[in-house]
């Protein structure tokens, strides 16, 4: 069976007390705006957009958090979504922009010549890992 699967959004669960700080984090650091906000089934939903990218924040009951990610390679757990990726036209500019706003890297920048991209990783205020991917060298056919 073949059918189109266009990407729609990434969903991130948020405790009620972290909903507004998370909306502000994505607005202040990555330029997202609130597209839609509503409540249903005991959950508050906030859709954030930046260009074609949509993030859905889902806020319901509070649950314990994870420890902060400080090393992206040590954060891999094979049983969950690890990160989502945002394409940027200039990785160095994006990293500088985030650094100026107090957002530290937890990985990179690094060249991935096999795919012709340079990447770096940050986390949002909740610890969600976000990959930033920008142009790099052309693919070489080997892994770095």
TrEMBL record:
Presence of keyword Membrane: no
Gene Ontology terms for molecular function: dioxygenase activity; metal ion binding; methylmalonyl-CoA epimerase activity
Alphabetical keyword list: Dioxygenase, Metal-binding, Oxidoreductase
Name of a matching Pfam family: Glyoxalase_4
GO biological processes: L-methylmalonyl-CoA metabolic process
InterPro entries named in the record: Glyas_Bleomycin-R_OHBP_Dase, MMCE/EMCE_epimerase, VOC_core
The VOC domain, residue ranges: 6-135
Coiled-coil annotated spans: none
UniProt key word Metal-binding: yes
SUPFAM superfamilies named among the record's database cross-references: Glyoxalase/Bleomycin resistance protein/Dihydroxybiphenyl dioxygenase
Gene3D superfamilies tied to this protein: 2,3-Dihydroxybiphenyl 1,2-Dioxygenase, domain 1 (3.10.180.10)
UniProt-listed PANTHER family: METHYLMALONYL-COA EPIMERASE, METHYLMALONYL-COA EPIMERASE, MITOCHONDRIAL
Designated name of the protein: Catechol 2,3-dioxygenase
Native source organism of the sequence: Streptomyces qinglanensis
